[in-house]
């Protein structure tokens, strides 16, 4: 029997890998025997100032309380305790700046930096429970700012530094942040792009409507000129840098709010997903340990996400640091100064665990294998993927080219809302199938069900359904900031009678019972692993004076997973100037939301397909955008609109 090694149906770990792996088959058995005792054992990976009395209180469902009565300091767990345990000299962060500068920060140094920042934030009058917005590129101070907030019980809200001033303002206002921490500018492909300026634009926006911000703390990164408001604005190097490096951490309740992170929903307004302390850190640490098979003091770990997304929170800051990882943090883009950058970094630091997104893997494929082939990647031993379903072709390329044909690949499914990985192969246990997230982790319970909540039947070719989480988990969201109703409506209403969490994803079970995530079933697009709602982009488009109506769909895209395709109707007085208008509209969306939301295509059309009740039929527009034959048009008011749309698109 010959077998094409590139086209196996599944890839079992080598005996050698399995023998040394953190997770064995017994993990699932333990969790199945007593789920709550299992989670208690995972919580014991952390240092608790005071132990909990109950593992879980679900009586207030859907708001869970995990490790009831327990008290801990999250930053102490991520930093100080490693120093106390004698690992102060271990490098926590190998930081690599985009222009080529770099910095190694040990755990002892990180403790001092976090303590200084905590002392200074205290001096500013911030108190536990206050909100701090962090709008920063990938520099060590961003991680320090996050940890200092956690140390003081301040709730941080990290806003991706690629977001526009209006997106920042919306988030600052929603959470009533008292402080914004930012930088003068950020490096982007060799150029210093202003960031402090964007903060000012945000804070003076809306006709200078009052906001909650008392101070803006600014790290100097690029040296560019910045607008300055005396009294309000403060330089980090003149304040934090001179503060006392000793700070006594205080313990907080396990349910103390740790952070808010905004994510797109099906309406134009982003949701502030709320996470708390003990359960979140427990699951972030647990998953980082087992899913990546991380060995503290031996591995060099690199997660390529940005701290502006949940992956950066859980798998750059909290999980790895709680587990005493030595990790690479890289500031810039993968092709600066050229496409070799990631592989040079892997070589330079001997990266052994690498965690990235399918969209980047597909980009690497496009650049060609001669690029990674020019480097010694033999230090890599585990590869991870997150953010969208990874197509089997990209999976195989990842394993063959980056993983020398032998590293396990973990395809990790989770969400901002779940806080940590939920469904993933375990690298020393699972025979991995390209394209499948496969199995809920030990301690996690998921099902694939139909509309009514009946489990799909295994082995049926059409075993497709909705992904639900039918048991609470420690790092689950505790709410939507300031909007309890939206929290219940979005996640808990669909299967309210069963008390299940609805993830918004479609999924399939194959005849072996392995789970394949198929993507969103709501009006949320996934572009390069970023969640963007159709409504948000539509609202940015109709914000332009020339646009009367807009409909946006996510169409399949070879590199980015989905690409944004917009259909717009112009106002009567607007002249269609062709490309000029389209470019202007694209720029408007970049300005309003972020360049990541810039539509791939915009089509000016005379009419949009609507049902009799006035609902835009996005499914049909998706057919058009992807060049397919039209599906069912029988509920349309005017089926002939498609002739015109097609004509305009061609
Ligand atoms: C999608 C990112 C398939 C999914 C951590 C989910 C995935 C959304 C995977 C959450 C995966 C994430 N396979 N789909 N391995 N990982 N997704 O909140 O649609 O930015 O609902 O969290 O990304 O995106 P979010």
From TrEMBL:
Q: Which InterPro entries match?
A: Ac_CoA_lig, ACAS_N, AMP-bd_C, AMP-bd_C_sf, AMP-binding_CS, AMP-dep_synth/lig_dom, ANL_N_sf
Name the residues that bind ATP.
Answer: 387-389, 411-416, 505, 520, 531
What EC designation does it have?
6.2.1.1
Catalytic function, reaction form = acetate + ATP + CoA = acetyl-CoA + AMP + diphosphate
Binding residue positions for Mg(2+) = 542, 544, 547
Residues covered by the AMP-dependent synthetase/ligase domain: 85-480
Recorded hits in NCBIfam families, A to Z, give: Ac_CoA_lig_AcsA, PRK00174.1
Write down what this protein is called: Acetyl-coenzyme A synthetase
- The gene designation is acs
């Amino acid at each position: 029997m010959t077998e094409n090694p590139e086209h196996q149906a599944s890839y079992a770990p080598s005996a050698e890998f399995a023998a040394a792996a953190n997770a064995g088959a017994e993990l699932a058995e333990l969790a199945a025997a007593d789920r709550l005792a299992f989670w208690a054992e995972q919580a014991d990976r952390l240092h608790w100032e005071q132990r909990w009395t109950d593992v879980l209180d679900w009586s207030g469902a859907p708001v869970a309380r995990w490790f009831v009565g327990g008290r801990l300091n999250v930053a102490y767990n991520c930093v100080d305790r490693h120093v106390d345990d004698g690992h102060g000299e271990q490098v926590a962060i190998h930081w690599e700046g985009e222009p080529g500068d770099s910095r190694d920060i040990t755990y002892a140094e990180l403790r001092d930096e976090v303590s200084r920042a905590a002392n200074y934030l205290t001096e500013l009058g911030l108190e536990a429970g206050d909100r701090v917005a962090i709008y920063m590129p990938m520099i060590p101070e961003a991680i320090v700012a996050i940890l200092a907030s956690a140390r003081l019980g301040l709730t941080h809200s990290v806003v991706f530094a690629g977001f526009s001033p209006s997106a920042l303002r919306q988030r600052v206002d929603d959470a009533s942040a008292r402080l914004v921490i930012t930088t003068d500018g950020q490096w982007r492909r060799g150029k210093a792009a202003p960031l402090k300026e964007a903060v000012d634009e945000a804070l003076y926006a809306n006709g200078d409507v009052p906001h909650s911000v008392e101070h803006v703390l600014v790290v100097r990164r690029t040296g560019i000129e910045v607008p300055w408001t005396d009294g309000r604005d403060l330089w980090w190097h003149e304040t934090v840098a001179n503060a006392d490096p000793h700070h006594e951490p205080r313990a907080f309740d396990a349910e103390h709010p740790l952070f808010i992170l905004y994510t797109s929903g099906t309406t134009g307004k982003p949701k502030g997903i709320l996470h708390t302390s003990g359960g979140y850190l427990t699951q972030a640490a647990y998953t980082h340990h087992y899913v990546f098979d991380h060995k503290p003091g031996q591995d060099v770990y690199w997660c390529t996400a940005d701290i502006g997304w949940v992956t950066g929170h859980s798998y750059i800051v909290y999980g790895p640091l709680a587990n005493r990882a030595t990790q690479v943090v890289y500031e810039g883009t993968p092709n600066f100064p050229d496409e070799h950058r990631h592989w040079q970094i892997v070589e330079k630091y001997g990266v052994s665990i690498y965690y990235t997104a399918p969209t980047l893997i597909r980009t690497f494929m496009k650049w060609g294998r001669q690029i990674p082939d020019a480097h010694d990647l033999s230090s890599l031993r585990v590869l991870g993927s997150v953010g969208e379903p990874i197509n089997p072709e990209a999976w195989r390329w990842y394993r063959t080219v980056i993983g020398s044909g032998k590293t396990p690949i973990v395809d990790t499914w989770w969400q901002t809302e779940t806080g940590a990985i939920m469904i993933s192969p375990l690298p020393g246990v699972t025979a991995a199938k390209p394209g499948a997230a496969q199995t809920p982790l030990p301690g996690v319970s998921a099902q694939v069900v139909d509309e009514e909540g009946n489990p799909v039947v295994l082995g049926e070719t059409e075993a497709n359904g909705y992904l639900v989480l039918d048991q609470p988990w420690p790092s689950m969201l505790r709410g939507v900031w300031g909007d309890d109703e939206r929290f219940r409506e979005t996640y808990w209403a669909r299967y309210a009678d069963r008390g299940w969490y609805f993830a918004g994803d479609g999924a399939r079970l194959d005849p072996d019972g392995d789970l394949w995530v198929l993507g969103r079933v709501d009006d949320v697009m996934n572009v390069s692993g970023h969640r963007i709602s159709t409504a948000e982009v539509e609202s940015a488009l109709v914000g332009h004076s020339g646009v009367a109506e807009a409909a946006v769909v996510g169409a399949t895209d070879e590199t980015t997973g989905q690409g944004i395709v917009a259909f717009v109707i112009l106002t009567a007085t607007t002249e269609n100037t062709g490309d000029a208008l389209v470019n202007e509209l694209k720029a408007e969306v970049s300005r309003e939301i972020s360049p990541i939301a810039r539509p791939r295509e915009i089509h000016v059309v005379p009419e949009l397909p609507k049902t009799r009740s006035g609902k835009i039929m996005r499914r049909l527009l998706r057919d058009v955008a992807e060049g397919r034959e039209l599906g069912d048009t029988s509920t349309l008011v005017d089926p002939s609109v498609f002739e015109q749309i097609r004509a305009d698109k061609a």
